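testing teh design pipeline on a random one, pls ignore if ur not involved
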């Protein structure tokens, strides 16, 4: 067997979970998430796209139930319960979020921080970030958070695509997203 074959097979048909956090169903972030999904499916991956902004996912209570009696389970029985199994099976995690006040919007922060109960998603090896804003030069906070989460979870940062006002829903941005998918 060719030495690269197993690596190729292992990486070829991955479970990809995209968390789309904009409340605007036909907005710029939703478009980016759809483009990523289309490109990834065309490449043969299994993709699940969840709009987390339409879910009821509260912030972490820091009650530490999960690290004691809960044995890894969160005490809050909200819509995060639907996400935990998807997170557990994901091999690639894509965060898609608009910039609100110079950082990733709140709707993406809650599901990330609720992973505290298990510390890290078990099978995720790679992550990507899709981010939209109105203005240029507003991505430092989001990029720093994303980079640090990748490092903390020991996953590969496959890259970030951003789209400010004049880059939204353009062929150039679609191309960047396709290139990002090709990094998998
Ligand atoms: C509450 C709120 C805060 C925002 N803060 C910023 C900001 O700090 N910088 C910026 O460039 N755009 C900001 N925007 C604009 C959005 O990031 C921008 O319109 C983005 O494309 C929206 O993505 P969507 O179409 O997926 O909802 C803000 C929008 C809202 C609703």
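output:
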């Amino acid at each position: 067997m060719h030495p690269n074959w197993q690596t190729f097979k292992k990486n070829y048909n991955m479970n990809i979970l995209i968390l789309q956090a904009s409340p605007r169903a036909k907005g710029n972030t939703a478009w980016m998430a759809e483009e990523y999904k289309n490109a990834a499916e065309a490449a043969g991956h299994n993709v699940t796209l969840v709009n987390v902004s339409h879910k009821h996912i509260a912030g972490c209570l820091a009650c530490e139930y999960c690290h004691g009696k809960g044995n890894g389970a969160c005490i809050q029985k909200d819509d995060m319960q639907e996400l935990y199994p998807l997170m557990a099976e994901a091999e690639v995690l894509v965060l898609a979020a608009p910039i609100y006040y110079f950082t990733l919007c709140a709707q993406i922060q809650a599901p990330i921080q609720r992973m505290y109960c298990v510390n890290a998603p078990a099978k995720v090896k790679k992550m990507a970030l899709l981010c939209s804003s109105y203005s240029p030069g507003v991505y430092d906070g989001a990029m720093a958070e994303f980079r640090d989460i990748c490092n903390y979870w020991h996953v590969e940062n496959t890259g970030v695509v951003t789209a400010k006002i004049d880059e939204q829903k353009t062929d150039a941005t679609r191309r960047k997203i396709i290139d990002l998918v090709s990094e998998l």
